[in-house]
Amino acid sequence: MSGANSSSLTLRVFILNGVPGLEAAHIWISLPFCLMYIVALVGNSGLIYLIGHEESLHRPMYYFLALLSSTDVALCTTTVPNMLCIFWFNLKEIDFNACLAQMFFVHMLTGMESGVLMLMALDRYVAICYPLRYATILTNPVITKAGLVTFFRSVMLIIPFTFLTKRLPYCRGNLIPHTYCDHMSVAKVSCGNVKVNAIYGLMVALLIGVFDICCISVSYTMILRAVVRLSSADARHKAFSTCTSHICAIVITYVPAFFTFFTHRFGGHSIPHHVHIIVANLYLLLPPTMNPIIYGVKTKQIREGVIKFLLGDKIGFT
User: Fold this and answer.
1) What distances in angstroms separate CA 222 from CA 56, 146, 204, 208, 227, one per listed residue?
2) Three-state SS across the chain?
3) Which residues of the chain carry a pLDDT beneath 50?
4) Helices 233-262 & 273-298, crossing angle to 10 degrees?
5) What is the rounded CA–CA span in Å between residue 262 and residue 246?
6) Residues in CB range of 51: below 8 A, 6 or more apart
7) Which candidate, 281, 299, 242, 254, places its Cα nearest to that of 47?
8) If we measure between CA atoms, which residue out of 248, 60, 37 comes closest to residue 142?
9) Which pLDDT score is estimated for 267?
10) Nearest Cα to 123, choosing from 41, 205, 46, 67?
11) Four-CA torsion 60, 250, 161, 143, nearest 10 degrees
């Protein structure tokens, strides 16, 4: 009877414990996370506004960047406000269904971000390898269809997570040692067999992460081959410079993502749990924070658009 009551309780509410072992430092941990969230909101919202209103940025590369920024805003907003409530007000309870919804959006949006980075790599491939056909290949309808396919791929692959997690019996308690509802963190609270969850999670990682990384790698291999064949050193430099910001975005997205994925499954006891939790949060916060900064610094057209926006018509560009 007590087991049934415990199961019933955990089906109504979970307790998100924040960063286990560092509860006394929650306030200090929250400060950089809060700052990063503000920078992510302001930076990505500014990019979306700039791309929408600056006609010189109405090109496929910047449409994909606007899609990436929209995904980043949604991703960090899905977790950070709840995380700050844990750190600042000790509000650790989350409804079971709200936890499943957060889990779905976290994984769906990270899958979406990976897909957009792949589309941006393909965009650079077409721009550098087929410059004369760039505008005819990447038309607005093609861009729209590519974005929709990426979105629906992520949604359809992540939806089963919610059903696989909801079917599990929860009789060990309701404490999740995390700051947000991650799929395997929730599943591990269960007293049932989570083998199917783990296998499906690995399959999704292969279908999204590994597939996208392979497409990105192939795209940049073809780009490198095309650039090396250019006779002019200036042309080679210009071609490489158009890819620099995107390569930086790929690195800051996939490095913490793979660290989080592998420590969940193979890191076990070798990595302190609080390190894993902090990196898992940086995995969601670092790309949204850094992407607008990287693209703002590295992309000439965006820098000029920002200056033009700030100074109005007082300055012109050649």
Assistant:
1) 27, 21, 27, 21, 9
2) CHHHHHHHHHCCEEEECCCCCCHHHHHHHHHHHHHHHHHHHHHHHHHHHHHHHCHHHCCHHHHHHHHHHHHHHHHHHHHHHHHHHHHHHCCCEEEHHHHHHHHHHHHHHHHHHHHHHHHHHHHHHHHHHCHHHHHHHCCHHHHHHHHHHHHHHHHHHHHHHHHHHHCCCCCCCCEECCCCCCHHHHHCCCCCCCHHHHHHHHHHHHHHHHHHHHHHHHHHHHHHHHHHCCCCHHHHHHHHHHHHHHHHHHHHHHHHHHHHHHHHHHHCCCCCHHHHHHHHHHHHHHHHHHHHHHHHHHCHHHHHHHHHHHHHHHCCCC
3) 1-10, 315-318
4) 160
5) 24
6) 57, 58, 62, 63, 65, 66
7) 299
8) 60
9) 56
10) 67
11) 10
CA distance 49 to 54: 8
d(CA 59, CA 20): 46
CA distance 110 to 201: 13
194: number of Cβ within 10 Å: 19
Read off the pTM: 0.91
Measured CA to CA, the distance from residue 309 to residue 260 in angstroms comes to 39
pLDDT digits (tens, 9 = 90+) for 265-311: 665 567 788 888 998 899 899 999 999 999 888 888 888 888 887 77
Amino acid at 146: A
Q: Which tokens sit at 53?
A: 């209103």
Question: How many angstroms separate the CA atoms of 208 and 196, rounded?
Answer: 18
- Give the model's pLDDT for residue 194: 92
